[in-house]
Amino acid sequence: MKASVTKGLGQGFVVEEVDLADPVGHEVRVKVQASGLCHSDLSVATFIGGEFPVVLGHEVAGVVVGVGPEVTQVRVGEHVVGSLIQYCGACVNCLGGRTHICLDPEHTLRAPGQAPRISWNGSPVAQGMGLGGFAQEALIHENQLAVVPDEMPWAPAALIGCGVLTGAGAVLNSAGVQQGETVVVIGAGGVGMNAVSGARIAGAEKVIVTDIEDGKLERAKAFGATHVVNSRTTDPVEAVRGITGNGADHVFDFVGARPVTAQGMQMLAKGGGLYLIGVSANDAGVDVNAIAALSASQKVQGVYMGSSNLKRDIPFYASMYLQGRMNLDDLVSREIGLADIEAGYESLKDGSTARVVITDFS
């Protein structure tokens, strides 16, 4: 089968013929129909590194074409969406419903003594985040897959597994936004737009989006933002306090730069929470005055994958989309072929591009 292989740090994405093993145990063979381009994969390929060669791609949607003998949660022919949340289902966190912070995520992978899932010229190929969606087919543990309705379109379905879980999940799961509360979304990228969608589903009264690009702010209005603020030309703290009166109940930082995160802290109302999702620099973080935070009963929380339970949340967001209650179509700016990954990532540098999805694997 064809797969886009990254052979080393900075060596790009090259389409090669690779071999995919037959499914064993709880593994599911998926014919990939859509695979989103996320910056996390680009970071692994360009500066973070890891095991090479590797097939990356962790926003996957496709059709089940084969199952291992121990698979019980999916059937051949079903449509599935993959997620990078890897969980064992047996540790104390999983048993408590916190699968996103599983203590044994390697449970979803093959043991060191087993043959690799992917091989190229007779040598093992690593599988990014247990998924490897930049390929015609993928072999994935059933714990990383959720079934979605057949009528769910492929391109928006693929985005649910990462960007939607992270953005909407931060609002609905991590923060538990309630009807009538006020929300600020810092950063109007694709993940931030999913936070806007989550806030609308939760019934937030005011959904304020801040960014430095007017084009992104216009897009935010289409997703349901009630107010937008260009933080390049306007003091965002003053603007948010002017809109809310007393500050925001919830502030979600999808940028992750220290000056921006500090502004997020200043936007909070009494009892408010600042949620850290994006990271754009090694020194990302925020200084907290303990006395001020204590007296105002404020909190700062890190958020991983929207505190999501993928088996519950992926079908939920698919349902919201099919009911017309969640905008995913406007996230898909471009659809490309498997050989066009590098050009696709280049196009993401343009602020007018929300997300790029591979839908042609020929």
Write a brief structural summary.
The protein is of the alpha/beta class. Helices cover 28% and strands 27% of the residues.
How is the secondary structure organized here?
Blueprint: E1 2-6, E2 14-17, E3 19-20, E4 27-36, H1 39-48, E5 54-55, E6 59-67, E7 79-82, H2 92-95, E8 118-120, E9 123-127, E10 137-141, E11 145-148, H3 154-174, E12 182-186, H4 190-202, E13 206-211, H5 214-223, E14 227-230, H6 236-244, E15 248-253, H7 258-266, E16 268-276, H8 290-296, E17 299-302, H9 310-322, E18 332-337, H10 341-347, E19 355-360
Structural key phrases:
362 residues, Quinone Oxidoreductase, Chain A, domain 1, Rossmann fold, six-stranded mixed beta sheet, 10 helices, 19 strands
Written overview of the protein:
The structure is a single chain. This protein is of the alpha/beta class. The chain folds into 2 domains: 2-148 and 328-360, Medium-chain alcohol dehydrogenases, catalytic domain (Quinone Oxidoreductase, Chain A, domain 1); 167-304, NAD(P)-binding Rossmann-like Domain (Rossmann fold, 3-Layer(aba) Sandwich). Helices cover 28% and strands 27% of the residues. The chain contains 10 helices and 19 strands. The strands form 3 sheets. Strands 4, 6, 7, 10, 11, 18 and 19 form a 7-stranded mixed β-sheet that branches. A 6-stranded mixed β-sheet has the order 2-1-5-9-8-3, with no helix packed on it. The termini are close together.
